[in-house]
C-alpha cells in the first residue's frame, strides 16, 4: 500500500512561499467546502468538515498547537493565538506552510465564535499573522484565503465576511508565511477579532491542515523502470499490450476505433505550446459544437482469449492549451464490462448486466484562483451500489490528486480488481506520476461471476449532452496494459 504523496513541483498554489509541496488552497467558489478541499474537482476531505494533523503529527489527533478561550458576549474582542511552535515547524520544512486549521477541541464548550474574515469591511478587524523576529522586527500578513467549513451547506463559504468555529463549524486560513529571509522567530501570533459570540463560551484549538500534496511520498517504480521510453516493454511477461503511437497502424492494433473519433498522430515538432513526450503522440480533439473526441476499445477476449479479473493500464496525458471545459465535464479512458447491456449511458448497473470505471474530467470554473487554473480528473463509475441511472463521480483526492496543469505531461495509471460476486471488495486505484491519487477497496461491480474486465475503453467525450463551444485538444502517448503495476514511463 502506498502512502500519500507530495505535490509535483510545478503545480500552482495560493500560498506565496518558496516550497513546492503545497495544496491549492482556495476560498473562491471552486475551492473549500465542508465536503471537499477542491470542490470543482470533487476532491473530498477524508472526513467531512476538513482534515487536520495535531502537534504530535497524528491525523485527527487531539494535541493542539495552541488553544484559546473566547468568553461569552466577547463581541469586538481581539483574540491572540500563539502559533510560534507551528511557525518554527514551517521554517524547518513542515507543510503546508502558512496554513492553519481551527476547531473546537474534544470536550470544548458548546459555544460558537464568529470572527471577521479577510473579506470584512472593517480592515482593522481582519485576521493577520504577526511575526516578531530577532532584533525586534515585527511583520504582519493578512490571509490569502480563509473559509468556514460548515456541513449545513454544500457551497463554499469562502467569500463570507466572517469565519466561524464551533461544534458544527471548523475554519481554515492560508497565511503568506515568508519562510525565506527570516532572521529567526521569537513569537508568532494569529490575531482574530470577534464579530459575534453566541451559545456560551467557545474554546478554539489550532491544528495543521492535512492536505494531500503536503504529505511526503516517493515515486513508486514499476515494471517500466527497466524500459527507457517503454522500448521493449511489450516483451515483459506481465504486459498485455503496449502502444507508442509512432505510426498510423495504431488503430489496427486496437479492437475498434469509432469513425466519428477525431484522433490523429501529432508531429514531433511543436504545435502551439505542445511539446512531445517521446516522438509522436495521439492528438485527440473535440471539435467546436461536438461531443466526441475519441471512442476506441481494446477487447481482452478478442486479443488475449480471456477476460481478466484484474488489470492495470497506464498512459501519458497532456492537456492542450485550449483544454478549457467551462460548459461541462466529460469522460476519459478507463476499464469497463458493459457487454452492451448496462453500466454506461444512463443504463443502471444492477450487478448482473454490466459496469464501467472510466476516467472523467471536470468542468473548469474561472474564479481567478489557483484552483481555476488547474484541470481536474477523476473516476466515473457505474457500480451496483449506485442506485440512480448514471455513474458515480469521484475526484482523485490523495497524494498529488487529480488537479493537473495544462501543457504538461503526466503519467496516469489505473487499476481495477473485480469484487467477489455479491461482496463489496472490488478495488479501484489511480496514480499520478507514480504516486497514489485515489483508492476505493469497497466496490461492488457485480453479483455474478461472468461479469469481468471486458475492455479498456479509450474514451474522450465532452458531456453529458452539452457540446463544447470551442475546440479542445489533449494528447495521449505511451499506453501500456499489464497484469502488474507499470509505473511512470522513463524518458529515453
TrEMBL record:
Keywords: Signal. Residues 1-23 form the signal peptide. Transmembrane segments: none annotated. InterPro entries: Polysacc_lyase_14. Residues 280-467 form the Polysaccharide lyase domain. Pfam families: Polysacc_lyase_14. PANTHER family: DISAGGREGATASE RELATED REPEAT PROTEIN, PTHR40124. This is Polysaccharide lyase 14 domain-containing protein. The lineage of its organism: Bacteria, Pseudomonadati, Pseudomonadota, Betaproteobacteria, Rhodocyclales.
